[in-house]
């Protein structure tokens, strides 16, 4: 692996940029035997493999990806990062991720373009103000930054915002200054490159078709590229988690929904931060390429179609145009869908399963990208030690039996 | 947007309906915590043919069941509650 630096860049330039080599090893087939196998090569799976190799020195690790790495929800989300969730368990989990985001480019020697430009969540009614203030107070008690802005302060922070539209006047806003965005593809590539340098095998185009077990637990996997033996398997398959877990005979508390997003034509820098409005259901930021990145909602029925209904996009654009009249004449460049796995309490599941050796990290629903480094970090610890990392412990699968739910339906922000 | 046939009102656009979850879940009369959790939360979530409940919320207001393919979203049949799904 070529370590990136000014000197490396200068050497590359002097050679006409012809000497760059592939960023990560890409073996065509898996080895027959691994210490741990991660199913799913998105950001969360690659981060898990990276921390397993780096912090727990696990010897032979593979990431099996059905398609190509980062081609699922990692490459389809709106890249928003924040940790202003309501309950202390969630604040701890998401803030762990934000703390890792802050040093991630240096950690991976790869520019993930983390940009803490602030996340503004709007209130349009008395009820919104009460709910927003409750979140601000809860966050501050949990040691997570969040502050309340008056409408004029919100306008000053985000000048394109129209605070006096007749339909959706802004009564105030919660601002998390440490929140922001990052380059989603770079996160997958950065973790893949760093994991590969530590010896992790990343096998793309390798679909898991079965999980084999004996009385002691899992023994390996059947894949489209042959059988693989492993006593530790971590499933990080997002929308396809129910399908993979069914191979081990488990029924999950998950339903998979299409979630859509869209981008506009690129324009000059016009939008300085991330703005979310849960009431009208719109969230928007501007990418470094200049596109407005707009998140829509989920369809009302479970589906694996990776498309979603067109009326969902229409509803979102109506809301964007109401809130930001200056964007009414923008053209939309493209829209797409991803399949998100949603839990009953809108919080993820990270931890052990009833099958020894089988671990699962799923249920991130509509908001998993922001958690990528923290999710991988606590899941790696959970797999390595065979017991939940303290931050992951409240997000166990058995909370649906004990009743200790973590209901983040409000903080999850996307209507579903 | 889907076109859905309400068994009572005929074909209507999807926005008249509310999806109401997996169909044919039997509520256990007595259950352990694990069985109760399974009834409340665990779902088949299949990639392929699914059986699910819908309600014609902005129409007759009645519940019915549908057989829908979750990859194509094609609805093969809708049928009244209590009826067996058509083959």
Automatic annotation (TrEMBL), chain A:
Please list the residue ranges annotated as the FAD dependent oxidoreductase domain. 35-381
Name of this chain's protein? Sarcosine oxidase subunit beta family protein
For this protein, the record's SUPFAM superfamilies field holds: FAD-linked reductases, C-terminal domain (SSF54373), FAD/NAD(P)-binding domain (SSF51905)
Q: Which UniProt keywords apply?
A: Cytoplasm, Nucleotide-binding, Oxidoreductase
Q: Which residues form a coiled coil?
A: none
**Localisation per UniProt entry:** Cytoplasm
| Superkingdom, taxonomy of origin | Bacteria
Among the Pfam families in the record, one is: DAO
InterPro entries cross-referenced by the UniProt entry: FAD-dep_OxRdtase, FAD/NAD-bd_sf, SoxB
**UniProt keyword Nucleotide-binding, yes or no:** yes
From TrEMBL, chain B:
Q: InterPro entries recorded for this chain? A: SoxD, SoxD_sf
> Know the name of this protein?
Sarcosine oxidase subunit delta
Lineage of source species:
Bacteria, Pseudomonadati, Pseudomonadota, Alphaproteobacteria, Acetobacterales
């Amino acid at each position: 692996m070529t370590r990136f630096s000014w000197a490396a860049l200068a050497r590359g330039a002097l050679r006409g940029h012809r000497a760059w080599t592939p960023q990560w090893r890409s073996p065509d087939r898996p080895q027959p035997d691994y210490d741990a196998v991660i199913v799913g090569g998105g950001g969360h799976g690659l981060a898990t493999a990276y921390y397993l190799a780096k912090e727990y020195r696990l010897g032979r690790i593979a990431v099996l990806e059905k398609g190509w790495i980062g081609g699922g929800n990692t490459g389809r989300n709106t890249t928003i990062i924040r940790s202003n969730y309501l309950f202390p368990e969630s604040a701890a989990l998401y803030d762990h991720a934000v703390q890792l985001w802050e040093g991630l480019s240096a950690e991976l020697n790869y520019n993930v373009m983390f940009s803490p430009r602030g996340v503004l969540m709007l209130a349009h009614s008395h009820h919104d103000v009460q709910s927003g203030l409750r979140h601000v107070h809860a966050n501050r008690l949990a040691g997570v930054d969040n502050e309340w802005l008056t409408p004029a302060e919100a306008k000053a922070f985000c000048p394109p915002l129209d605070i006096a539209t007749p339909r959706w006047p802004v009564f105030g806003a919660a601002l998390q200054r440490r929140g922001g965005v990052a380059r989603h593809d770079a996160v997958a590539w950065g973790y893949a490159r760093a994991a590969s340098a530590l010896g992790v095998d990343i096998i793309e185009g390798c679909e898991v078709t079965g999980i084999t077990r004996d009385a002691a637990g899992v023994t390996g996997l059947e894949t489209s590229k042959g059988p693989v033996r492993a006593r530790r398997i971590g499933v990080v398959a997002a929308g396809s988690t129910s399908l993979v877990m069914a191979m081990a005979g488990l029924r999950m508390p998950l339903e998979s929904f299409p979630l859509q997003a869209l981008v506009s034509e690129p324009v000059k820098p016009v939008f300085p931060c991330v703005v979310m409005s849960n009431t009208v259901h719109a969230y928007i930021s501007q990418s470094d390429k200049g596109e407005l990145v707009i998140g829509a909602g989920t369809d009302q029925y479970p589906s694996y179609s990776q498309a979603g209904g067109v009326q969902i996009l229409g509803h979102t654009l109506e809301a964007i145009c109401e809130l930001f009249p200056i964007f009414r004449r923008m053209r939309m460049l493209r829209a797409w869908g991803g399949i998100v796995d949603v839990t009953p309490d809108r919080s993820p599941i990270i931890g052990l399963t009833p099958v020894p050796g089988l671990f699962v990290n799923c249920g991130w629903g509509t908001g998993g990208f922001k958690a990528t480094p923290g999710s991988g970090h606590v899941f790696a610890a959970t797999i390595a030690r065979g017991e939940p990392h303290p931050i992951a412990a409240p997000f166990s699968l058995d909370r649906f039996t004990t009743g200790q739910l973590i209901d983040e339906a409000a903080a999850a922000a996307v209507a579903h | 947007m889907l076109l859905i046939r309400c068994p009572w009102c005929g074909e209507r656009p999807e926005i008249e309906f509310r999806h109401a979850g997996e169909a044919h879940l039997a509520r256990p009369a007595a259950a352990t915590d694990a069985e109760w959790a399974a009834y409340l939360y665990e779902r088949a979530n299949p990639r392929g043919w699914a059986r699910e409940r819908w309600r014609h919320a902005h129409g007759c207001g009645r519940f019915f069941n549908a057989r829908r393919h979750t990859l194509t979203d094609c609805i093969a049949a809708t049928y009244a509650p209590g009826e067996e799904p058509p083959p």
